[in-house]
Structure formats: C-alpha cells, structure tokens
Amino acid sequence: MSIEIKSSSEPYDVIIVGSGAGGGMASKILSEAGLAVAVIEAGGDFDPAKDEDRTQLRYPWESPRRGNGTRIRPFGDFDAAIGGWDIEGEPYTRGKDTSFDWFRSRMVGGRTNHWGRISLRFGPNDFKRASIDGLGHDWPIGYDDLKPYYDKVDKLIGVFGSKEGIFNEPDGFFLPPPKPRLHELFMMKGAKKASIPVIPSRLSVLTKPINNDRGVCFFCRQCNRACQAYADFSSGTCLVHPAMKKGKVDLYTNSMVRKVTTDDSGKANGVSFISKMDMKEYKLKARVVVLGASACESARIMLNSKSKSHPDGIGNSSGMVGRYLHDSTGADRMGILPDLIDRERYNEDGVGGMHVYTPWWLDNKKLDFARGYHIEYWGGMGMPSYGVGFSMDTMRKFIKDEFGNPSPNGGYGEGLKKDIRRIQGSTLGMSGRGESIPMYSNYCEIDPNVVDKYGIPVLKFHYQWTDHEIKQAKHMHDTFEEILTNAGAVLMGEKPGPETKYGLATPGRIIHEVGTTRMGNNPATSVLNSNCQAHDCDNLFVVDAGPFVSQADKNPTWTILALSWRTSDFIVSELKKKNI
Amino acid sequence: MNRRENLKLLFTGTLASGFLLTNCAPEDKKLEYTPRIEGGTVGGRTEEEKLIDQKLLSETFLNEDERKKLDVLVDIIIPADADSPSATEVGVVDFIEFMMKDYPAYQTPMRGGLMWLDHHSEDNYGKVFMALSKSEKMEIIDQIAWPDKAKQDMEGGVKFFNMLRNLASTGYFTTEAGFKYLGYIGNTPNIWDGVPAEVMKKHGFELPEKYLDTYLKPEERGELAQWDEEANIIRSNS
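^ Those are the sequences you sent over. The predicted structure of the assembly is below.
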C-alpha cells in the first residue's frame, strides 16, 4: 500500500527514511523479521514495468529533445532518475572556493534508478587503509565481517562476473558475464600491451534468472532507464516493492523528512515530515529510526534534529556529522579508432554498461599518490540519440577516402551525410574512478541562512581535493593515453594539465559521496559504532553510505547493501533482546 | 506480438530464450515512427515535466522568415539522396524550433547568426540571403562551412554554421529515416552472444581462452542460477 498522507498515532516498529539501496535493503530485512515498517520517500512511487513509467526501449523521436538531458534528468530525457544536480525549491550552498555538486533522485529506489550497476565488493585492504598508508582511518570492521553479507547480496540480487582470485577484488557468487564488444576487445589489446589487466565487468544485471519474480536481461544497454523485466538491480523493483507485497510495510511517498524527533531522555521516537501534496507537517512514531536518505541528506536530517538532549543535532555529540565527506575521483579520455570507421552493423547493445573493466593493478608504494582507481570502458555502437552527428567540424578529418585522403573538417551535403554514417561506432573512451583521502576539512554543515521550499535549513558544502587525488588524475591520463594509443586509437581532445587539476572531476560529480556519519570505536571521533548505531542515541541507525570510513576505488552500492543487511540483522537482534 | 505477451515471455526464463531469437513481424510494430514534437516526451513523466514540455511546445521562437531560411540551410547540410529523405522532409526545423526553447543558450547565436547571414549577403551582393541565387548562396556557405580553410574574419560565421550543422545532423539522425540511413540495429530484445565470427576474424580477434567457459551461453539463459559451495555457478553443460 502506498500512502500519500497519514497522521498516525499507532507507532511503527521501525521508520526508514529513504528508499534507495540502504533503505530498501533495511525495509526488506526488517519486514521479513515481522516488524511493522514505514518507508518515507521524498519523491513519488515508480515501477518501470508499468507502461506509464516506462522509458526503456523508447526511440529518440519519442522525445521532442531527442533524448537530450534536462534539469530534472541531466543524464538524458529517458534516464529513469528524477531529480538531478539542481532541484527546483531544494537548493544547497557552497563555502568559499568550494565546488561541490550534489546529485539527488526523488523517487522510490532513489539513485539506484540511475547508477551503472557496477557492483564491486570492497577488498580486505579497503577497510584498513590507514594501517597501509597512514592516511585517514581504518574501519572498525573488516572484510570478514561483511563477506557473509556480500555473499547473501550476490545471491539475492544477482551480479555477473568472473572468478579471478585477486586479493583486494574479492570474488563472489557470479552469474556468467557477457562476451566483450568489439571496441572492448580493442581496449583489451591496448591494455595488454601495457601490462594492464582487463577482466569481465561485475554488474548487477541478470544474465540468468535468480528467482521467479524477475526476468533476465534482453540486452538493450538501457539499465539507466530502469528495466521493465526487473533484470537489473534497483531498490524499488528488487527490495521495496517485494517487501511491501510480503510484509507489513507502508510506503509514504512525496514526504520530505525534516527531523528525527526524540523523547525527554533523548531517544529517537519518530520523524517529522512535510507532505509535498499539501505542504503540511506530519509526525510518525516508531521504536527505531533508520536513516537511509543518502550520506548528505541523512547528515542534514541529523544536524537539523536539535533538542535539549542533542543540542548540536542528534548523533552529533562528537561534532563529526557531515565531516569526512568524500567522493570518488574521476577523469575521462576519448579517442577514435580508425579500424572501426565503416564498421559492420550488427546489434551490439549488450547490457547497460561495460562488459569489461580494469581493477586497480598497481602498488601505491611505488607511486607518488596514495590510493588506486579502476577503469571503466565505453564506446561502440550504442543507440544514436541527441548529439549524434555533432562535432563534424573537428572529427571529420579522421575519416579517410579509398586513397587515404582525409575528409575536410566541417562541410555539408551528401558527403557529410555519408561521413556521419561512416564514423558511427568508431569512438571509444575510458573513465577512471578512484579513491580519495577522507579529510576532516571536507564537510557539509547546515547553512543557517538558507531554507528549502519546505522550510528546512539546507546543506552548505566545503570541499578541496588534496595532492593525492590530483596526482592520481594525472596518472589516470597517462594510463588512458597509453591504452588508447596501444589499441590503435587516435587521441581526441587535449590532455588536461595542472591548471585543471589534470581533468579531475568536481567533487560530487561521480555520485559516490560517503563518510558523513562515519563509524568508529571512539565516540569522540565517529558518529556511529561498528553496527551503524549512533553512539549517542541507541535506537538511531544509518544505512546509506554515510557510515563509510573510506570509499574504496569501488562503487559504493554493493557495500551499502551488505552493510544495511548487517545493520538490519543487528536491529532485529537488539529488539529481540529488548536492548533498544 | 504485443507488449504484454512480450513482457510475459521476458519474465519466464526458457520461453524467453526461444522467443528472443526471433524478431517481431513488421506489422506488429506499435511504435509511432514519425517524430513526436507536439506531445512532449513519452514515458514516466512527472507533472512538472509535463508542464515544462507543454509550455515549451506552446511557445514559438522562430518567425516565418527564420524558418524559411532554416529550411534552405538544413537541406544544404542534409540533402535527400537516392534512398533517403532530406532534413526538411523529416521535420528538422521543428526540432530546431523546440531546441531553441529547451536550451535557451541557442537562441541568440541562432537569431543573430541568421541575421548575420543577411548582413553578409547585403554587403557582398546587395541582397538578403534568401534573394540570392543558388550559386551565390553556396558561395557564402562555402566561406563558413569549412573551419580549417575559412578566413579569419569569417570565424563568427563558421561558429554559427557549426551550430547549425550539429543541430541539423542530430535532428536528422534521431528520426526513423536517420536510423535507417545509419544502419543502427538495436533497441530491441535480443540475446548478445559476442561479436559475429566474421567481424572477429576481420579484426584479427579471438576471445581469450581463459574465459571461454566463463562467458554466458545463450542456451542457459532460462535456467535458474545455482552455485556450488565454492561459489562456482553450476553449468548444465559443463
């Protein structure tokens, strides 16, 4: 049952704020334990199997902007995620000299509707980085604590991949991976010459069925549009909606949580939210409150939850809420492969992402920066959309006639038309996604001067990259050039230099922000204990990426899911023991 | 094959594998293949998005003279040939009209660029662009269509024509006729089983030996996944 508005006096066992990866997993595990659960979501309900919600298998001409991005869907008019970097009426601010961009999705399933389905486990080293390089802090838990949960997530949700036996890139219960595409074979060739490994990618896309509720991938390359067959993972289709079918789960949509409410003793006793439908405030009560609103949004709710017992915000007696905010690093490079001009046509859509990737392969002890990165590959013959045929003023020269003479840049007419056809599917590129150093000085806080349209004080971001990230980006570009050149590609664009931090993406842009409610054994330097339970409020938990002590060079979703499952098991056990 | 049957089959493993190897017959196609301009984007729209599209579609940016000029220009960029239509035949100017409003940064360069074309024509031929003969028009186009050869004082015109080339091309190749011309095959349920053998051979590739047994085999797509205790997936034919 989806509830728009309710003012309930009947308390729930658990209120979960947010329906993304963390909140979705908590809703499933807690409801399966028989608990009465409320899931509060700031956006609307969404089910890609309903034809009115479907953007999958649409053609560009079904959009007047031919699939181009909008403010609400910056990744394309048919992208499933509703929200973006700049949401009407929901501003955020930035400190001096800070650029930080905050991507939000206001809908059931949250940002799992958008992501690339790259599902990598953190490895043993990823939990103990401070012990290895002396920077940042170790997690209070290790790989062995999470391994059983990663295993369960693999089987519940499904991920394809290959067993490799790489120490810090742990294998899991994999479905068979798809064969590489043609441009990916060129990348493999280029990387091999440079002794850089390229292995089958690990994406949560079902190449075989894992249960009777979800279909299998039919290879349309559109996971970001959400799958009508539920063959990829999104929290709405795989966790929240199934939990609602089986258990006592009420979903409150279009409900913007303002604060966690507390009783006189300082224990959480519910939440207060604004309904977007009537702009009125409502309160719900519960024995346990679980925040899964995203690392920054959960921090915002905690900082805004001030009371006599929690004068600086609930869970914030350490002053650490919002601190150690960090995103993955990112840099990209592109080239054109003359061998692929005039290429044969066949259906090469494949799954909704790369079929191969490069896990981190070097030893940082021999490098001038501290942490690693993985490489994602892209290109080939995807479906043309807004942007097809662009840039012939600079790219046409790469096309040669039968005598080897290059076409002139620019132009018009039948010759141009033919060249646009000839160049289709010949560009390719790669993106590095790396680990940054968590810094106390990178943080979000409440901006006392600005509220959103619901009257809730907004976040202000402070963020600077350190030399480690900048040098890492430089290394990425050297690697990209080496692989592309070895693959036979002609490099496009200029290699970025120090004036642009070597093309290092603005913080927030990789959408892997973590660390704002980090876990630790010391209540003076961390927000949560090793069970993601607030040190100073024992019935408050966080299940998004806020608890991460450090973000590895892996995408965070698989770890959010494993950690949320582990936290949910702990909540069930503590409730049984009457400890909370 | 209607969508519901299609979906039903996608959800049920083994049946799906068989079905997906064949395509729907052309008469079963239900999609609208003409460019949709008037209705706004289809699928999963929020109320806010519907309002934005309706507002943009109700407004008019290009005046009649500008549209006439664009009709000429976009067909110079993308003319018809023996087996494909021209840009105007597939509604490229309607698309440009929409993009002017959806992405307002285009407006001044477009309006100003079209005006500049008249100024440049006046200065050189004593007539506005539309009053020029075909060969006079092409003389002007040739001054701005070739970025690497254009004179330095034509830089503004080159930039304008680059924008126009981008919009005309993308507007053309995102239509059904454009897809047909490009030869794009996809956006339909299918089973990926690697690059076709003849293409592999042409480029001198072989799949890495190491992964031959690991890759997905189409015939096992319908079988429920199961693993042994070492986390190896159990393959029916291994």
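Residues 62-182 of chain B form one domain. Confidence is low (pLDDT under 50) at residues 1-34 of chain B.

Shout if you want it in another format.
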